[in-house]
Design goal:
With 190 residues, this protein is α+β, with helices and mostly antiparallel strands. It contains four helices and seven strands, in the order E-H-E-E-H-E-E-E-H-H-E.
Length: 190
């Protein structure tokens, strides 16, 4: 089932997510719905707060990037990089900070350069509640960091300079008021 994505200004996007356990009701259905929702919006990541749930759950599927010329050198790593992250904790961020132009399904039509560290170590449970501690770099780390921010109540616009925040403020206000043209199901703050 395709769920509405919460727009900038919705209070749930600012909540720190709660841990869940393997007995969370309808967990597999929720995960399936999140993937369906993400795909319908042409996204590569989606966090539970974006669909109105303050849970420590996010999903990623960067396989579409495997065909992008910019990622030719990591094509094989991206080709099957589809993951579920439950109760994730980033243990370490390292390496050089690099800028990348980020966007967000909850903040349509706003894209800005964000600096993030190039490598992360993250601990999480998968959809079968198997615990993992893994290291990721490149665009995979970037997408994980972006989605991880969502379960911490942080949006990519929070990483912008004061000047950039002022420049996008008008667009953010319009999004929160529903004054945006989008091709996917969205729920705006009341």
């Amino acid at each position: 089932m395709i769920l509405p994505i919460r727009a900038f200004g919705d209070p749930v996007l600012r909540k720190v997510g709660k841990d869940i356990d393997k007995d969370y009701p309808g967990l597999q259905e929720l995960i399936d719905n999140m993937f369906e929702t993400m795909y319908s919006a042409n996204g590569i990541g989606l966090a539970a707060p974006q669909i109105g749930l303050d849970l420590r759950l996010f999903i990623i599927d960067v396989t579409p990037l495997a065909d992008d010329e910019d990622y030719e050198d990591i094509k094989d790593e991206l080709a099957d990089f589809k993951k579920v992250f439950i109760n994730a904790t980033i243990l370490e961020e390292s390496g050089e900070e690099w800028k990348f132009n980020e966007g967000c399904l909850s903040i349509p039509d706003v894209r800005e350069d964000v600096k993030r560290k190039e490598t992360i170590v993250i601990e999480y449970y998968d959809e079968n509640f198997v615990k993992h501690t893994e290291t990721f770099s490149d665009i995979r780390a970037r997408v994980i960091q972006h989605e991880y921010d969502h379960i911490e109540g942080v949006l990519f616009t929070d990483h912008l300079s004061i000047l950039k925040k002022k420049l996008v403020k008008g667009k953010l206000t319009k999004i929160s008021q529903g004054e945006v043209s989008i091709s996917y199901k969205m729920r705006f703050p009341k």
